[in-house]
Amino acid sequence: MTQDLTRLSASELADGLAAGEFTSVDATQAHLDRIAAVDGAVNAFLHVNADEALATARSVDERRAAGESLHRLAGVPIAVKDVVVTKGMPTTAGSKILEGWIPPYDATLVERIRAAGLPILGKTNMDEFAMGSSTEHSAFGNTRNPWDLDRIPGGSGGGSAAAVAAFEAPLAIGTDTGGSIRQPGAVTGTVGVKPTYGGVSRYGLIAMASSLDQAGPVTRTVLDSALLHELIGGYDPRDSTSIPGRAPALVDAAVQGAGGDLTGLRVGVVKELSGEGYQEGVSARFAQSLDLLRGLGAEVVEVSCPHFEYALGAYYLIMPSEASSNLAKFDGMRFGLRVEPEEGPVTAERVMAATRGAGFGDEVKRRVILGTYALSAGYYDAYYGSAQKVRTLIQRDFAAAFEQADVLVSPTAPTTAFRFGEKLDDPLAMYLNDVATIPANLAGVPGMSVPSGLSDDGLPVGFQILAPAKADDRMYRVGAALESALLSTWGGPLLDRAPALPTATTELEG
Amino acid sequence: MTATTVDLVDYADATRRYDPVIGIEVHVELGTLTKMFCPAEVSFGAEPNTQVTPVSLGLPGALPVVNGKAVEYAIRIGLALNCQIAETCRFARKNYFYPDVPKNFQTSQYDEPIAYDGWIDVELEDGTVFRVEIERAHMEEDAGKNTHVGGATGRIHGAEYSLVDYNRAGIPLVEIVTRPITGAGDRAPEVARAYVQTLRDIFRALDVSEARMERGNVRADVNLSLRPTPESPLGTRTETKNVNSFRSVERAVRYEISRQAAVLDAGGTIVQETRHWHEDTGITTSGRVKSDAEDYRYFPEPDLVPIAPPREWIDEIRAGLPELPVARRRRLQGEWGYADAEMRDVVNAGAIDLIEATVAAGTSPAGARKWWMGELARRAKQDEVTLEELSVTPAQIAELQGLVDSGRINDKLARQVLEGVLAGEGDPEQVVTARGLEVVSDDGALLAAIDEALAAQPDVVEKVRGGNLGPVGAIIGAVMKATRGQADAGRVRELILERIG
Q: What are the tens digits of pLDDT across the range B257-270?
């Protein structure tokens, strides 16, 4: 076989499968081979699900051969972030406390993926319980950025972004509480989408902050994200915060956007999400993308969201508060790690304490302590209460801004990928990575990161597009238009410029 | 438990010198088919940990969905307790670590209960009506059930290990909280008992719960404080947990009044604490001190959206509410013409439904009461069962009384027929036929028996002829004996007098 199936996008794979050019087993095996070759260096996967993935692929191939009508993505392999529960497959959320746990049920989005016939390649690495911006907080080792193996792949979904950037998977599932899909997308040169809150069921997502968490697609093209988003999205009665009714047509919007005409569209540049604190090369790529949008007929206006400056502060009260409660269930009583105290009586309370002490990493403990404090009697109003008020103000800022613009834009992250260890001892510096992505989570609006080129350091930069709640289609239209304009200027996909990865075989040869 | 002597003040003395204030929290398990937040089935006595889902086990990733029927039942309870129903309300998380709480938080309602500001009239045994104000009724989920193995008497202290059954975890509960109940004075224990009993009757009437105390469907926590006079500010209270029978509610209040009075008399102060009720010894002992109680870190449950019951739905529920027990009792007493004392006995005997059904089947209220409160009550007491558990139906009682009214049997025979019915020999008519118990109405047969009796007692005949009718009874008795009670005594008397002339 001359064609390298791992270089194809999901939609290209889908077309090839539909046309009978290759089989799902071919495509799945190609990706499993790629994982075997490069994941030793990248470490995007915590678990590779080879046998089951191939079995699914064979079954899809048989059904296709039998003339069955299949989902468009049937047979296209996918990777799933390890925070999403998968029946019969280990699910750790990047934590020692869940090591070895095999969930007895599937998340709703996994049910939908299985029902559509996508072979699940495996589970991807992440910051423990999705708490981090670098995947350095994983209990199972760092994931490396395929652009530079000494650098972070972003986080918390560094594994999913790196897997897609390293051509180990054409599609991946991420989750985004404060930027965990979009920021890894930005620093790995991939597309990442956080849907409108309630757009994708949270049933089966191991919760960090229930009011902020959303699952979404991680892909190499905007169209692929739209295809995956439509598959996993839509109402789920098992999630009370799921949005009822029909979801907008995202694939159509992406196809329309790729046509390149944005005449009459108002693009709002959020004043508070640029300038100071943003790396020069990041700002330059951002400005270039704005020019391209103008060239497609869009009107670029500046909007102000004055309360965004309090977003990070509010986020770091609400998120840990909810997390402190959501993570209480990890206590060694019913599943996962159980540690008995080294000395003294073995009581339930002491087993819980010993288990949590041994099972949780520092960042998780830091947030659980912060959240416990913020919810305490006497502090609740000042901390959690005030943060909720800020949240309301941020929602109003968005509402006012969307009066003036159809979409809002900003750089996705203030810097390109940093080196391992650079921010590990400075939580505040780490938290600042998410300054541009957090407002969308607080307001529940959808956001997308599209690769917008390389900074001066040769590393990818992301362009963030935000749309009003339930208008996810709008950002697909703009994202696809920008993507197509950028591809013309680059003369090919940005990831073609990424350095070749050392493979298991080349290492042997070397 | 270390043996400590607790000083108690004589109850009458205590209530003369102190004014008791009570507050009661009642938890009722709703009789929904499934749990509060997941579709796990609910039924009593299932194998441990078989009625669970990822949600009720608190597995990672699981999310709650509110059971609409439970909300309807909560609204029904709220309306029956004359509460306001919230236009919108939320669930909150009550955070605390305990193995029977699978998520290590209980999903409950905190500052936004579904029902609030209500009242209920409770009737004491002597008919006095006492109004209890309801502060709130809120929805929450039950915890699992712990079993402590090894050690003493099933307590956690000294146990070798503990088992948890999560079948109960997530069963919907409604918690009803009273405002401080003042003005009950020395009748406080009685009021507390009547209140819980009234709630139990309401739950049953509303069909929202089986409300079986012995199964823990209804559980009460009793708060009590004393103050020198009704004008004084409220004293420090204790909360006695899990007092799970009507009698215990009354006893626990009474005990706490005597105990707290002794502490105050000795110049001590009441510690705000939870106390354990000991059914066997009838005392309370100190539990956890409330001042260093856990901080539950309540916050709105982010996995659930607010509940905003539409007004039309509430109106619909209101329109469908059944008549409540107190109102029904008043109506039936009026319809039946029972005296207060008679009605009270009927209520206390649990005979109200049975009498109502018997009357509905055609018996007079007096006739129905005669059977259920007389012969049947005696039988129930003798067999140590409730009236309902006797194997006789209101329809059979109505049939029995019908046979008496039509003269086919007399009261004495009717008791024999009832014996047969209770013994499972069939309906009264069948028993009459099978046992041959019909009244002898054939004058010829009676006359033969009368002649025999007259011949045997010539002295009596003489007296009667002399105008003294008193001894006729002796003849009647002999005839009744000869006919094994199957004769109509009135007719026998007539025939005797005719015969003697």
A: 999 999 999 999 99
Residue A336 makes CB contacts below 8 A (sequence gap 6+) with A97, A98, A99, A100, A101, A330, A359
Number of domains in chain A: 1
The answer to whether residues B489 and B443 touch, using CB atoms and an 8 Å cutoff, is no
Inter-chain CB proximity A334 and B98 less than 8 Å: no
pLDDT tens sequence across B274-293 = 999 998 899 999 887 655 45
Say whether residue A237 is in contact with chain B using an 8 A CB cutoff: yes
On whether any CB of chain A is under 8 Å from the CB of B59, the answer is: yes
Q: Which residues contact A270 (CB under 8 A, 6 or more apart)?
A: A303, A304, A305, A308, A401, A408, A409, A410, A466
Report the C-alpha gap between B167 and B144 in whole angstroms.
Answer: 7
Residues B464 and B475: their CA atoms lie apart, in Å, by 11
A199, A472 in Cβ contact below 8 A?
yes
pLDDT in tens, B228-275: 999 999 999 999 998 989 999 999 999 999 999 999 999 999 999 999
With respect to residue B316, please indicate whether it lies within any of the assigned structural domains. Answer: no
> Within this chain, do residues B270 and B362 fall inside the same structural domain, yes or no?
no
pLDDT digits (tens, 9 = 90+) for B320-362: 999 988 889 889 999 999 998 899 889 888 899 999 999 999 9
What counts of helices (H) and strands (E) characterise chain A? 17, 11
Q: Is there a single domain that holds both residue B353 and residue B224?
A: no
Residue-range definition of the domain harbouring residue B452? 443-500
- Determine contact: B458 vs chain A, CB below 8 A: no
β A171-176/A214-219 pair status: antiparallel
Complex ipTM value: 0.95
- B303 contact residues in A (CB cutoff 8 A): 202, 207, 210, 240-241
Residues of A in Cβ contact (< 8 Å) with B102: 329, 334
Q: How far is the CA of A478 from the CAs of A11, A57, A431, A474, in angstroms? A: 19, 34, 28, 6
Same domain, B119 and B73: yes
What's chain A's average pLDDT? 96
